[in-house]
């Protein structure tokens, strides 16, 4: 760890809410060595209190906690605060991951985990957090509430999957820009896809069916040989 890296993170404080003593101590020690200040709490009730009473740049949160569980902590936290949260848990079912993200978590990492991967994810979220995005967007008669994951058009509720919402959120942040399929794949799926994979086009088609097909004006536009743009004008 270089002195420059330590200085960069020195003022960033992370709250770890983890009841397993060995895991909690390991996380605290490792994150301190990575240049962060760390508060460690071992139950959900105290963790929520700490999260609401203090200023943290990020929270690492377990699900299975004494007191109130991680789901309850996340729900109560999102009602009052907007800061990056990573679930770090042994709950490895897809339904658990979806539930955590739907509650408003920014990331979900399953135990056993790579500490290096955790630190990389933390750094990614903190970089994003330097430039906080808008919590709400209005494009024509489309309304997007990012924190509540709520989408309406002409006052009609529109239910989106996590990936559809992530795609719409990306479009909202880059209105009027031509976004390539590669960029969309990287941002929404956090990975690169081969050029012959049509996952982006399929996802856009599904999103169009929900937010565009029955409405005017159309908001999603195909940009020939590039990808897609979003907004009232093509």
UniProtKB/TrEMBL annotation:
Query: Record's Pfam families?
Result: Response_reg, Trans_reg_C
The record ties this protein, via SMART domains, to:
REC (SM00448), Trans_reg_C (SM00862)
Which Gene3D superfamilies does its entry note? 3.40.50.2300, 6.10.250.690, Winged helix-like DNA-binding domain superfamily/Winged helix DNA-binding domain
Q: Name one GO biological process term.
A: regulation of DNA-templated transcription
InterPro entries hit by this protein: CheY-like_superfamily, CusR-like, OmpR/PhoB-type_DNA-bd, Sig_transdc_resp-reg_receiver, WalR-like, WH-like_DNA-bd_sf
What ranges are recorded for DNA binding?
A: 134-232
- Lineage: superkingdom: Bacteria
The Response regulatory domain extends over 13-126
Q: Where is each OmpR/PhoB-type domain found?
A: 134-232
Which residues does this entry mark as bearing 4-aspartylphosphate? Answer: 62
- A single GO CC term, please? cytosol
GO molecular function per UniProt: phosphorelay response regulator activity; transcription cis-regulatory region binding
Q: SUPFAM superfamilies attached here?
A: CheY-like (SSF52172)
The yes or no answer to whether the keyword Phosphoprotein is present is yes
Mind listing the UniProt keywords for this protein, alphabetically? Cadmium, DNA-binding, Phosphoprotein, Transcription, Transcription regulation, Two-component regulatory system, Zinc
Q: From what organism does this protein derive? A: Caballeronia concitans
Output this protein's name.
Two component heavy metal response transcriptional regulator
């Amino acid at each position: 760890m270089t002195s420059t890296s330590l200085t960069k993170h020195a003022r960033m404080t992370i709250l770890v809410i983890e009841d397993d003593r060995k895991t909690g101590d390991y996380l605290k020690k490792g994150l301190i060595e990575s240049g962060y200040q760390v508060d460690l709490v071992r139950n959900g009730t105290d963790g929520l209190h700490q999260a609401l009473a203090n200023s943290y740049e990020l929270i690492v949160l377990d699900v299975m906690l004494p007191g109130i569980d991680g789901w309850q902590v996340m729900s109560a936290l999102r009602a009052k605060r907007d800061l990056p949260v990573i679930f770090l848990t042994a709950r490895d079912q897809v339904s658990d991951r979806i539930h955590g993200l739907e509650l408003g978590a920014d990331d979900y990492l399953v135990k056993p985990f790579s500490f290096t991967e955790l630190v990389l994810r933390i750094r990614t979220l903190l970089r994003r957090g330097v430039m906080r995005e808008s919590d709400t967007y209005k494009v024509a008669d489309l309304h997007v509430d990012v924190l509540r994951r709520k989408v309406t058009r002409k006052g009609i509720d529109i239910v989106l999957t996590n990936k559809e919402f992530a795609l719409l959120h990306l479009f909202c942040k880059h209105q009027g820009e031509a976004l390539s399929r590669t960029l969309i794949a990287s941002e929404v799926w956090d990975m690169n896809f081969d050029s012959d994979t049509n996952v982006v086009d399929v996802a856009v088609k599904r999103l169009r069916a929900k937010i565009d097909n029955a409405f005017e004006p159309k908001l999603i536009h195909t940009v020939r040989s590039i990808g897609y743009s979003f907004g009232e004008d093509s």
